[in-house]
Write a structure and sequence with these properties.
5 helices
């Protein structure tokens, strides 16, 4: 996983909009939401495999990954203050 992610580099309102777009994309096509948020990496490969097994596992994985990434970004941001 990358040390600095997209959401850790963005301001609060831009981060919220990016998270919302990622969640909407991951609901429609789970690998798209992961790609939007993390790029091409292991997260995308796992999301594609889970989506091929079934739509719901792909959505659940995508939402958990995006949610955890957002939680870590806000936690790291509060430590920097």
């Amino acid at each position: 996983m990358r040390s600095r992610t997209l959401s850790s580099e963005l301001s609060g309102t831009t981060r919220n909009k990016t998270t919302l777009v990622s969640l909407i994309c991951s609901y429609l096509v789970p690998p798209l939401g992961i790609y939007w948020r993390f790029g091409c990496g292991s997260e995308l490969a796992i999301s594609m495999q889970l989506t091929l097994l079934g739509y719901l596992p792909g959505v659940i994985y995508s939402w958990i990954m995006i949610g955890l990434e957002e939680f870590n970004a806000t936690r790291n941001h509060s430590k920097d203050l």
